């Protein structure tokens, strides 16, 4: 098992490196927890102009890339702000036999759609320990990557993480206080979302 994981990491890193050199319109982000569980997204800050495509390359583990917000880093952005649908990879449980389509999530950068606004994102299983990132951060604002990580850790009590969760690609991974439904998919509990929003409003955070 350990050999398989090492081989998968090597192969994924090779594909990641080769792909980066093939198309300069693509910006690649490697998604995979390292041996010390300190990095989920590499890099976790991405600058991409319109016409570029951010390519999330899932390399190992059962991880996600879900758009969120600075105020609520571990909650899908469409729950906090219904005017933004956001991107959502669903869970990508990568193994040596995973197909290329399972490994890649492509996010095109389009002027007037998702540019120039920042796009914050998170991994469901590691968000509470800093598994977050941002596309096109606003350097003139206070919404920095360090602040995003702090918010993710501070608000982690509003949701529960589990590496055993699974979901179809494109669905929203969620959580309840009691675990998952019979379909094996985790769900956000309305109470946990309400508690998160209560904390944000109480802190004077503007969500719009």
From TrEMBL:
Bias (Low complexity): 157-183
Chain intervals for the UniProt region annotation (Disordered): 155-183
Entry keyword annotation includes Hydrolase: no
Keyword terms, alphabetized: Signal
Signal peptide location: 1-21
InterPro entries: Cupredoxin (IPR008972), Ser-rich/MCO-related (IPR052953)
Designated name of the protein: Extracellular serine-rich protein
Classification of source organism: Eukaryota, Fungi, Dikarya, Basidiomycota, Agaricomycotina
